[in-house]
Amino acid sequence: MRVSGKAAWLTASLMAIGLAGCATTRHGGLDSSAGRLDRNAQAFAQDSAEAPRGYSENTSYTEDARDFAERAHEFRRTVADRDQGDGDVSDRDVKASFDELSRSYHALRDDVEKADDPEARRDMQPVTQAYLDVEDNMGGAQAPSRYSDADDDRGPG
Hints:
157 residues, mainly alpha, de novo design (two linked rop proteins), 6 helices
């Protein structure tokens, strides 16, 4: 009986420590994802503006890439300010910043798809992965937001 009592106490203690750890890192995943998205968006915007690696000359998405990079940076700063306890930044501010980021991301993604540039699509993949991580941390997507406009056109039938 004594051994089982100690085992139960140890299990309860470990569970309490685990829950305390979760409570103190409430937004750690979002902060990390927002930082990665910011870095990837900045790199993609720079690549699309400089076009050093063979992007097609018609990079119609360059303006959208710059806009998205700015919004990704603003979003990361909003999350960081909220997590640092800045009383002026609330969860509602983070949500509003994410909504702007989301609109910008979808516009960029659609323009990259329309440009039909395989290298740009490949370079967009890290941006997309980071965006989806942020989206998941924000509570997931409303369908069909993970799909491009082209996905909605399935042709006749």
